[in-house]
Amino acid sequence: MSEQPPAGSSDSSDSSGHSGHSGPSGSSLVPVAQPLPPTNGYAIACLGLGIVSLMGCSFVTGIPAMVLSRVARRDIAAHPGETTGQDLATIGFALGAVATAIGALVVVGLLILGTLGLFVFDFCGGGKC
């Protein structure tokens, strides 16, 4: 009686001595890179508004950047794996918050300077000290 390989074995050597092991579909195993999910549109818009807010449009684009950041993070959390951009939303929020804080300090500074200026002009009698 001749020896045969066990029933579950697939050791089929060809004449060159290579075994016939292959992947599940009959091809050799090659890793395939999975495509990344798209970036959330709100996160991209939030980052853009945050950058523009630092260029002098602090209140006009800083507050919407913070709002869109919150919307983007909720959207990304609600649909995990469908979109990315959590980091972009966080950076956009930070840029918008910094620009809004700077804008608020500028407004407060101008109000203080204006108030001091009016006080000085009134105290000196028409600005002639």
Could you describe the 3D structure shown?
- The relative contact order is 0.13.
- The protein has three helices and no strands.
- Helix 1 runs antiparallel to helix 2 (58-78), helix 1 runs parallel beside helix 3 and helix 2 runs antiparallel to helix 3.
- The mean pLDDT is 82.
- It is 57% helix and 0% strand.
- The chain is an all-alpha fold.
- It is rod-shaped and about 120 Å long.
Content-based structural category? mainly alpha
Report the total helices.
3
The percent of residues in helical segments reads: 55-70%
How would a crystallographer describe the biggest sheet? none
Search tags:
about 130 residues; mainly alpha; 3 helices; about 55% helix
Short description:
This protein is mostly helical and 129 residues long.
